[in-house]
Design a protein that fits this description.
Blueprint: E1 11-12, E2 17-21, E3 34-38, E4 42-46, H1 53-62, E5 67-73, H2 82-91, E6 95-97, E7 124-125, E8 131-134, E9 137-143, E10 152-156, E11 161-165, H3 183-194, E12 200-203, H4 212-235, H5 241-248, H6 257-273, E13 277-279, E14 290-292
Parallel strand pairs: 4-5, 5-6, 6-7, 11-12
Antiparallel strand pairs: 1-2, 2-3, 3-4, 8-9, 9-10, 10-11, 13-14
Helix pairs in contact: 3-4, 5-6
Length: about 290
């Protein structure tokens, strides 16, 4: 897949879809969060991104002769939803889409998810199948938990397109980080999207996915291979997540070690639930000791 253009440049992706990338490049955001403009004249904005005044200013400048009538949010990670409040303050458009994040106290993984925007307060929560009708387009909410428990995708029926948020990204596999991220839910949501008919995905990071069925088959195979590798490492004698990470992520950038540990934990949570792996503390936790059943 090609690399998207720098942030601040409006790109026309289809007759109804434009994209503006936020200036939050990083190891977990690629070139930045993709904000999408849907419609012409009277439009909806999907994922205004982080609380970055320059990004909102660029978005308003690009739409100065148009009216933003709705702000849709796929999920409440801080690189996607905080910008919605900045945009609403300038346009008075309603914020709709995903539900607020529910803090998970005493989570089995032993940590809380600090990446969520806890101030997100939508004017309307969209549930599975809910529709937002704009001028010449309709967006359907598709619940896709896994990367985040409140994650939504939005289907654009007029173009057989899907705004996939971070559930399916255009540059990397999705991070599934407990306690809010859940591997079983992620895999179920992938199967849900595989059963749908959209022919192009517009992801939260990276360029459009133009053969989503093939790409999702790759994502499923990747997760199954990672699960197999974890089971093999436990069979070989690795008992702790740090040891498993060291063996299956050789040469990994130190900045990504924490994310890799959480990804392994997500797989282990699923394996423990399915009865294939045993944790010495009952539940899968970062500090637990794991053996095969």
């Amino acid at each position: 897949m090609s690399t998207p253009p720098p942030s601040g440049e409006i790109a026309r992706l289809s007759p109804r879809v434009r994209r503006l990338i936020a200036p939050n490049r990083g190891p977990f955001t690629f070139t930045g969060t993709c904000t999408y403009l849907v419609g012409e004249g009277r439009l909806a904005v999907i994922d205004p991104g982080p609380a970055d005044e320059s990004h909102i200013a660029a978005l308003l400048a690009a739409t100065q002769h148009e009216t933003i009538e709705a702000i849709l949010v796929t999920h409440t990670h801080r690189d996607h939803s905080p910008g919605a409040r900045l945009l609403q303050a300038r346009t008075h458009a309603p914020i709709i889409g995903c539900a607020p994040h529910v803090t998970i106290e005493n989570a089995p993984s032993g940590r809380l998810d600090a990446s969520h925007d806890l101030d997100h307060a939508p004017d309307e929560i969209m549930h599975d199948g809910a529709l937002y009708s704009g001028d010449g387009f309709t967006l359907e909410a598709v619940t896709t938990p896994g990367h985040a428990s409140n994650h939504l995708a939005f289907s654009l029926a007029q173009e057989d397109a899907l705004f996939s948020g971070d559930h399916v990204m255009g540059w990397s596999t999705t991070i599934v980080a407990p306690p809010d991220g859940n591997m079983a839910a992620y895999m179920d949501s992938l199967e849900k999207l595989r059963a749908r008919g959209e022919t192009i995905f517009y992801p939260g990071h990276g360029d459009p996915v133009r053969d989503p069925q093939r790409y999702m088959r790759h994502l499923v195979a990747h997760r199954k291979q990672r699960e197999s590798a974890i089971l093999q490492r436990i069979e070989a004698g690795d008992r702790h997540i740090a040891d498993i990470v060291a063996h299956i992520y050789e040469g990994l950038d130190a900045k990504l070690q924490g994310a890799a540990a959480l990804s392994v934990l997500a797989h282990l949570e699923d394996l423990v639930t399915r009865g294939l792996v045993i944790s010495n503390v009952g539940a899968a936790m970062l500090e637990a000791r794991f053996t095969l059943k």
